[in-house]
Amino acid sequence: MRSFKESRICVLLHSHKKIANARHEFIKLSGSENKMEALLQVLEPSLAKGNRMMVFCNTLNSSRAVDYFLNENQISTLNYHREVPAEQRVENLEMFKSNDGDCPTLVCTDLAARGLDLDVDHVVMFDFPSNSIDYLHRTGRTACMGAKGKVTSLVARKDVILATCIEEAMMKNESLESLSVYSIKRDKARSRVNEQKGRNAKMEADASARKAEAARKRAEDIAEGVVQMNGHAYANKKPITGWCRPVVLAISVVEGLGVQ
Predict the structure, then answer these.
(1) Cβ(84)–Cβ(9) under 8 Å?
(2) Helicase C-terminal domain location, by residue (predicted)?
(3) Would residue 137 count as lying in a domain?
(4) Whether residue 220 is found in the same domain as residue 125
């Protein structure tokens, strides 16, 4: 998947929903890739530039895991989710917005995706959202009032279809709200059908290969048996007669067809 610069703000069906005027980057993760390590590789260079960052997670457990991992790697964080008391959430936001830069990373759930006045340089989606509207709300935390910003999404295999639809819609300057639940389900169904077709084709090819190998082995076994029983005929260059002759002729035909 590519990263690209979205140069214009796209106003959606509702005026308060906009695509951030930011650079959007989609990082497709392999099945064996460590997601936490991928997050660290995204955060470290951005933090080195002094950027204020938000890391979005889909669940409380995911948010806790990210917070613990980052602190273990000497990255100071603040939390914003429903299990943080309201007073503490307010305090965390004030610390996050302060200019001293002591805690430039806010680890949060979608509770922080709307209704907050924040000046964020970089939004990171550790967990990709389940729909395009949540993606819009998260990206709205950066590039406010025409300022520059960046959005980085870690895309797991299960999120590829939705991420691709969002990416293509932004490239065409289309409304993300046009990505209906039906169209996403349709694309997922098509993907499953194509995957099944690929598996079926592989199974058919494997079956054909096994049949060809079995035929080759049978021909070799027949040839070996005839040679053992009639070795004296080959050695003395005498014609083979009787019941063996049709078998030898069959072997000659098989060899002429190029069966190895």
Answers:
(1) no
(2) 35-187
(3) yes
(4) no
Residues 6+ apart with CB under 8 A from 255: none
Residues 6 or more apart whose Cβ sits within 8 Å of residue 13: 175, 177
Place of tokens 């290969």: 209
pLDDT tens by residue, 37-60? 999 999 999 999 999 999 999 999
Integer angstrom CA distances of residue 73 from 95, 214, 226: 20, 57, 73
Distances (CA, A) of 97 to 78, 118, 199: 11, 7, 52
What lies within 8 Å, CB to CB, of 55 at 6+ separation is 39, 43, 66, 70, 77, 105, 106, 107, 108, 124, 126
pLDDT tens readout for residues 131-164: 988 998 999 898 877 778 999 999 999 999 999 9
What is the domain extent for residue 14? 3-179
109 phi/psi in degrees, rounded to 5? -105, -170
Residues 239, 139 share a domain: no
**What would the pLDDT profile of 194-237 be if each residue is shown by its tens digit?**
677 777 778 888 888 888 888 888 887 787 776 566 555 444 45
Residue with tokens 């005929």: 233
Does residue 189 sit within a domain? no
Please indicate, yes or no, if residue 148 is contained in any of the structural domains.
yes
Asked if 112 contacts 139 with a C-beta cutoff of 8 angstroms, the reply is no
Same domain assignment for residues 247 and 150: no
Domain count across the chain: 2
Does residue 119 come out as left (phi exceeding 0), alpha (psi in the -120 to 50 range) or beta? beta
Residue 240: pLDDT over 70: no
Q: Are 142 and 213 in the same domain?
A: no
Whole-structure pTM value: 0.64
pLDDT at site 81: 95
Residue 212 in domain: yes
